[in-house]
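>> received
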Amino acid sequence: MTILDNSHEEHSAPSPRTPKPATRGPRPPAPDSFLDRFFQITQRGSTLAREFRGGLVTFFTMAYIVILNPLILGGFSADNAPTDVAGGWLSAAQVGAVTGLTAGVMTILFGLVANLPFGLAAGLGINSFLAVSVIQEVTWAEAMGLVVINGFLIVLFGITGARTAIFRAVPRELKAAITVGIGLFIAFIGFVDSGFVKATTGGPPVQLGTGGSITSVPTLVFVVGLLAMGILVARKVQGGLLIGIVATTVLAAIVEAVLKIGPASAANPGGWHLNTPVLSGQLVSAPDLGLVGQFDLFGAFGRIGALAATMLVFTLVFTNFFDAMGTMTGLAKSAGVAHKDGTFPRLKSAFIVEGFGAVAGGATSGSSNTVYIDSAAGIGEGARTGLASVVTGVLFLGSMFLTPLTSVVPLEVAAAALVVVGAMMMAQIREIKFSKFSVALPAFLTIVTMPLSYSIANGIGVGFISWAIIGAASGKAKKVHPLMWVVSAGFLVYFARGPINLLLGA
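>> returned
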């Protein structure tokens, strides 16, 4: 499906010698169903079928988090799980259960309150930060307490309007650059996750496949899925992405049944990444929610001191705050609900609910929940309202009981959908005036930094700082909003947090 834009067709005035064009037919009847009125489905040019389809597609492209989050945060024993300073670890089964629970509840809440087709789940950047860095200093319960504090601060920024004010201060061209950068970022994620692009040693940073060739069957399935989804979208087939995901998953399952490829590992580098497309064993199981409420709100401050704990919270807030802001900017534009200045309906409500996602994620020990850029796949399928989010959320709740079914879709198939959606988001580049270099360079830096540093927040930070400095140095200081300077200063601290920690002994 094509992405809507906000432009309007221009019609020339009819010649006085020619009859006026015939008026259009009668307007469609006013929506009479509760769902239509509540979610403004007809008003946004959508249908119930598109919303349900979009919700399904968003879930299928996000479902990997139910499998991946337990692998990052937990394990099946202390030997294969990240352990904290006290030797504690999280059960992978329990992490999987709370991942589905929190994603389901927060995505449904977001759909009902913000009425936007955005899915929420455990943020990959923050969960990795917790597993790799934070628990080297504190326990898991204390780390999740820091996540809760981070969430309450973000909620406070949302309630006071500070987050909305910062959002409005961002120039229109920079918002467009954020959208384009996210498009490139998710496409790059798709290429990497599928094995189409790989890191190298002793050569260029990345290369095509292995040695410049596509050598694995799963990567070939990705290519087939990418082309199939691209053709369906190009031909404007309703449900193109969903059809492509299902069809490519069936193909992957057939390939696995015949060739017995198995999961990727050091001994089997050509295997499936994350999920192997096969159903086996028990399909339904009761979730273990034992991690709910297992957090220590202020324990980290007593263990490592107020300064060190505050710096950890600062890092969490900056990552959470600007990743979500950038993601929602791009998604709102893709959904055709953004205004000319980049804002969108129920902006403040969206920021507040997203902040509570961080609180809920810490309180359930599943890590901070935030808006997922993968939601662009559902938007590309036609989703325009919060009903799609409700559908996605209900499926996440069901995933707590149906983890084997959730794991059928291999990462290579989801990756193909991300690349297609990334191409769709590139359309926003037309809003950037590259003829003005004071605009072109910050926009360019924003766009390329996201995929190259694997971080939306980094791209936004580089864009903010370069926009403010270049604008002031080129004689346009009055056009740089004061909040841009404030946020840029914050990003300078964020980028220098390593040396600052060492300097302060934190």
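>> The first strand starts at residue 74 and ends at 75.
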